[in-house]
Amino acid sequence: MSGGVVTGGWNFVIAAYVVTFAVLFIYGVTIITRLRAERSRAANEANEQ
Amino acid sequence: MNEMKTGPSAILLAIGAYFGFVVAVAQFHGVTALSLGLKSGTIALLAAGCGVAGAIWFLFANDQIDSWRPAQVLIGLGLLCVGVGSYYGLFVAPPEQYMGEVQRIMYVHVPTAWNALLAMTLAFVCAVIFLFRGDFKWDSRMEGSIATGVVLAFLLCCQGAIWAKPTWGVWWDWDPRLTTTAVLLFAFLGILALRRFVEDPARRAIWSAVATIIAYVDVPIVYFSVKWWNSLHQQQSTPGTVSKQFWLPLRLNAFGILFLMVAFIMLRSRIASMRLKQELAPPLPAAGELGEAV
Questions:
Q1: Could you give the angle at the alpha carbon of B274 between the alpha carbons of B269 and B280, nearest 5°?
Q2: Residue A42 and residue B98: Cβ atoms within 8 Å?
Q3: Does the model's pTM come out above 0.80?
Q4: Residues of A in contact with B167 (CB under 8 A)
Q5: Looking at the predicted structure, is the pLDDT value of residue A1 above 70?
Q6: A33: domain range?
Q7: What is the number of domains present in chain A?
Q8: Can you tell me the ipTM of this complex?
Q9: Mutation target vs A (from B101, B234, B268; most A CBs, 10 A cutoff)
Q10: Nearest by CB to B86, which of A7, A17, A35?
Q11: Which of B97, B100, B76, B80 lies closest to B88 in space, CA to CA?
């Protein structure tokens, strides 16, 4: 901080963007993986019947 | 994909994109003819309203279809918008007068906040419709909305803490806006936990719908907390108080995260729906019973 103005801070900006993309990516991959697992389970059950 | 069902959402999204992006770029370059004589507040309202309505229409028209295509379209659009918006936010938009480079966090923080509250609102709407209609597809949509809303609320708190440190000097403060947001996160996390513990699908759906309606009371409190109490957090900005140079990255990221959120809700509610089908399916007869039946 210099005279009421924030100076620098690129490390915080990069951290915020990295956290954003990481959380969205991990959540997206988790959902797709879980949905694939559910689908294959449902397909297996249908085959057994 | 059902073209008839996605047609209205495409029209709404096109109107939203026109007022959100095309008019914003034109105004930035001094071309006012494209704004059709509308004020900046009305243009922002049209962009947000048509964008959200189009995305939600797309969600409800496609979330019961057993295809990856609708979610793929939304994820593709979302990544494109977030990619271009973040590039503009990081490298093209100028630093803010007082907060300098740190203000660039706004381009991901504010869209995350808008979409987190929107996901909670969707959950509330699904809960109310479920209680009136008793159709379990609304229960699945509610679960998808809550789970995605919780992820966005968690992300919102992380981004807020990262922005708070260089501007306020602390990672966290028990300020009204921050506290009510944390309450919102844990309230909806509690509803997801409740759904894990209740085995009976009907009871689980009713209890979690009622809990969602109660927890939703916190959403307007979060929104108005900066107006009702003295808060470190700044009050809501309007298009009139935000520089035109900041509009495009903010809107691109808002639309991008909206598309990703809708795709996640679509996929997450499909998981909930498939699990529900498994729970409600009658048990398979044992080998002996099958022989007797034949």
A1: 120
A2: no
A3: yes
A4: 6
A5: no
A6: 1-49
A7: 1
A8: 0.91
A9: B101
A10: A17
A11: B80
B72-279 to CATH, choices 1.20.120, 3.30.1360, 1.20.1440, 1.10.10: 1.20.120
| Cβ distance of B163 and A16 shorter than 8 Å | yes
A6/B278 CB distance under 8 A: no
Q: Which residues contact B116 (CB under 8 A, 6 or more apart)?
A: B149, B152, B153, B155, B156
CA distance B35 to chain A (A): 32
User: Which residue type does B265 have?
Assistant: I
Residue B251: closest CA among B64, B7, B27, B4: B27
Domain spans in chain B, listed from the N-terminal domain onward: 72-279
Check pLDDT > 70 for residue B293.
no
Region B215-239 average pLDDT:
86
Mean pLDDT of B237-263: 85
DSSP string covering B197-231? H--SHHHHHHHHHHHHHHHHTHHHHHHHHHHHS--
Contacts of B275 in chain A (CB under 8 A): 38
Residues of A with CB under 8 A from a CB of B: 4-10, 12-13, 15-17, 19-20, 23-24, 27-28, 31-32, 34-35, 38-39, 41-42, 45, 48-49
Q: What residue type is assigned to position B118 of the chain?
A: L
Tens of pLDDT, residue by residue over B187-207, are 999 999 999 998 899 999 999
**B268 with A31: Cβ contact below 8 A:** yes
Report pLDDT digits (tens) over A4-33: 777 778 999 999 999 999 999 999 999 999
Count of other CB atoms within 10 angstroms of residue B293: 7
